[in-house]
Amino acid sequence: MKHLLIVCIIIWNFVGIAVAAPDKAQVMELLEGRHWKLDSEAFQSLEVGTDSVLIEIAGDTALVNYLRFRAVEALALFPTKMTADFLELTAEKSFAALSRRGFEAFKRGFSKTDPQRVTQLAAHLLKHRNAQVRISAARAMRTLDAPRFKSFLKSESDSWVRKEAQK
Amino acid sequence: MKIKLNLCHAAFILLTASLLIGSGCSKKESSSSATSTADNSTSPFTVSEITQTNSGDGYFTGSFVVPSDGISFLLSTHKDNNASVAFYSLSDPDGTDILSSSSTPNLNGVASGSLGGSGYANVLVPQSPSFSAKAGTWTFKAYNNDRVKLALRSRSTPTSTTIVVQPYITGTTWAAGDLTATLSVMSGIYSTNGITLTINSTITISDSQYAAISGTFTDSTTSALVSQGSASAVNLFFIEDYSDSEHLGNAAGIPGSMGIANSWNGVLISITAHKSGSTLDSQLLGETAAHEMGHQLGLFHTTESGGTVFDILTDTAECLNSTKDFDRNGKMSAEECEGYGGENVMFWRPWTPASRSAGKKQETLSSHQQQVLKYSPIAK
Predict the structure, then answer these.
(1) Cys-Cys crosslink for B123: which of B21, B78, B113, B284, Cβ 3.0 to 4.6 Å?
(2) What's this model's pTM, rounded to 2 decimal places?
(3) How far apart are the C-alpha atoms of A155 and A141, rounded to whole Å?
C-alpha cells in the first residue's frame, strides 16, 4: 500500500509537470513578428517551466537567430538559478550578438538580486573583443561600479565606443 | 467590429515618435523657399521648402499648389531638436481637411503628420485610392516646427512603375555579395506585383560604429547613418545587428521620408537576425526588405497581431481574431491566416520556420497596395 502511494505521488508529479510546462510552439508564438517588443505580461501568464522552454529555444543553433535573440531577452523575466547560469554562460561563450544579449538579459534579470555577480560578469566583458559587448558591459558598469566605468573610459581606445558607452 | 483606422499603426509610428502636440508657441515668422529637383528623367520629382506664416494662435500656416498633372505628394514637418511636430490640418483645394476625423475619407490617427512625431512627421497623398493629389491650392496649419517641406511628383502616371533602391551594408562580417540573393528575392516580389526595382550597387559602410546600431531613428548614430542615404532612392540599410532592439527590420515611418537626406530617409534591416547557424536565410531577408520598403512607402500591416486592427485599404484580406484564431492565443499566425492575408508582404509576421521550410512565402500585394506604391512620390 505504501509503495502504491509513492508510485501514485511520482505519477502525479510527472503529470503535473507535463501539464504545467508550456508547449514550445506556444512560447514561439510570443517571439514572432517582424517588429517585436517584449510582452512581459504574456510571458508571465504562461505556466511554470517557461524558462526551460526559452532556454531550449535560445540554445537551438539550428533555429533562426531572431527567435533565439528574443528568447534570451524574455529570459530576463524568469530570474531563476537555471536562467542565471544559462545567461552567464551565453554572455561568456557565445558569438558576439548572442553574448551581448545574454549579458543584457542577465543584467535586467539579476542586477537587483545579485549585483555582485552582474558586476563580475560586466568586468569580464569590458575586455571583450566585440565593441558592442564592451559597450553593454560599460553601460551596466556605469551604475554598478562608477570608478571602474571611469577606468574603462580611460583605457578604451575607440573613441566611438567611449561615446556610445556614455549614452 | 473591424477597426480599419487604428491604434496599432499609431503605436508603430510612435516607436519613433512621441505625441506632444502642445508645442504651439513660436517665434518664427516665415522661412525661405527653395526648390531642388531630384532625378527627373522620367517623372518630375521636386522637393521644396514651403514658406510659413505665424498665424498668431501658436500655429504656422502655409500653402502649396498641386499642378494639374500632379500625381502625389509627401508633406513633412521637421524639428531639428527632435521635439514633437505635427500638422493641425491639411485642407485640399475643395476645403476638406483630410486630417480631421469629421472628414470622409480622412487620415486622422493614421498619418504621422496627424499623430505627431519626434522631429519629423508627414502626410502622404494618396496613401490609399480613397485620396488623390487634387490639382489646386492645398493649405495646412502646423504646430511649431523648423521647416515644412513638400516632395511633389507630377506628370501622368507611367504605365510601368520603377522605384530606385539604394542598398547599404554595414560592418565587416558580411560583404555586398552576400546580399545578391536577398536583393533578387525582393526585386522578384516587386516585379511580380507590377513594380520594377532599379537596384543600385550596394554601398559598403565599414566604419565600426555603424555595424550595430539603435533601431530608433532619432538616435545620433542611427541618424548619422541614415542621413547618408540617397535623396533619389529608397534606402535600405542592411545593418549587421541592432544594438537595442529585436526587430527583423524597421522603417523610419509609414511612410518615411522621401527625397530628403535626413534621419528618416531609409529602413534598417538586421542581417544577423536572419541567420540560422552559418546560413543566411535570403528568402526571409528578401521578404523583410520588401516589407520594410512597403512601410517606408506608406503601407501598413494588412492585419496586426491581435486580428482586430487592419490597414486602411479596402481590398486587403483581413484575418479576424473572431474567426481565425484557432488556437485562441490572441495572436494571428500566417498559418491561421492562410488565404486571409498570411501570404501578403505586409502581414505582421513571417511564416513559422516549419512553414518556410515547406516553401511558404509572403510575396503578394493587393491591387490597392500596388497603387499606393505606383503613385509614390519617389516612384517613376
Answers:
(1) B113
(2) 0.90
(3) 14
